[in-house]
Amino acid sequence: MKNTENPIAIFSKWFNEECELTKVKIPSAVCLSTMGIDNFPNARFVSFKEIVDNSFIVTGPLDSRKGIEINNNNNVAITFWWAETERQIRVQGIATTINSKLADRYFEERNINAKAVSSICEQGKELDNAALLEKNIEDKVVEGKRIDRPSNWGGFSIKPIRIEFMEFKETRFHHRKLYEFHNGIWSMKQLQP
């Protein structure tokens, strides 16, 4: 069934409602799922930044496991779970790398420790000497010098093709709506709990 409601607007409303109520430290945490190069799915929590051009933005090293997997197969999923409002949002979409200007902006917003870690660490690689790596990061922070965005650090814009909203109910008759994007138009169907 065609629907004039924009699921991106619904997402924004729900996200703002959760942020007003939540007590969790990182309300923007979202589970990003990719298809592994070994054909096993991989899921991990990343930080959702914002919606840009009706796409969901997440950031991180482009040469990490998630970056390699997205480069190999850019069909991804992100899943939000919000405890205060008891809502879940599932998004399936196509990931593309964000431009360097946007990546610079997100990197600049990071705190000094996050910048130091991103500039020194090779995310997901085997660790030989944790104490030495931690000292190198601490030294970089203590230097207090400007830390520029490493060339391997960026982000992904996830253009949704499906967005499912679920509101949990004590009766277990959860309210579920699935929006799908076809030929430039969102359509909606209600799903059984």
TrEMBL record:
<dbReference type="Pfam" id="PF01243">
    <property type="entry name" value="PNPOx_N"/>
</dbReference>
<dbReference type="InterPro" id="IPR000659">
    <property type="entry name" value="Pyridox_Oxase"/>
</dbReference>
<protein>
    <submittedName>
        <fullName>Pyridoxamine 5'-phosphate oxidase</fullName>
    </submittedName>
</protein>
<dbReference type="Pfam" id="PF10590">
    <property type="entry name" value="PNP_phzG_C"/>
</dbReference>
<dbReference type="InterPro" id="IPR012349">
    <property type="entry name" value="Split_barrel_FMN-bd"/>
</dbReference>
<dbReference type="InterPro" id="IPR019576">
    <property type="entry name" value="Pyridoxamine_oxidase_dimer_C"/>
</dbReference>
<feature type="domain" description="Pyridoxamine 5'-phosphate oxidase N-terminal">
    <location>
        <begin position="27"/>
        <end position="138"/>
    </location>
</feature>
<comment type="similarity">
    <text>Belongs to the pyridoxamine 5'-phosphate oxidase family.</text>
</comment>
<keyword id="KW-0285">Flavoprotein</keyword>
<dbReference type="InterPro" id="IPR011576">
    <property type="entry name" value="Pyridox_Oxase_N"/>
</dbReference>
<keyword id="KW-0288">FMN</keyword>
<feature type="domain" description="Pyridoxine 5'-phosphate oxidase dimerisation C-terminal">
    <location>
        <begin position="153"/>
        <end position="193"/>
    </location>
</feature>
<keyword id="KW-0560">Oxidoreductase</keyword>
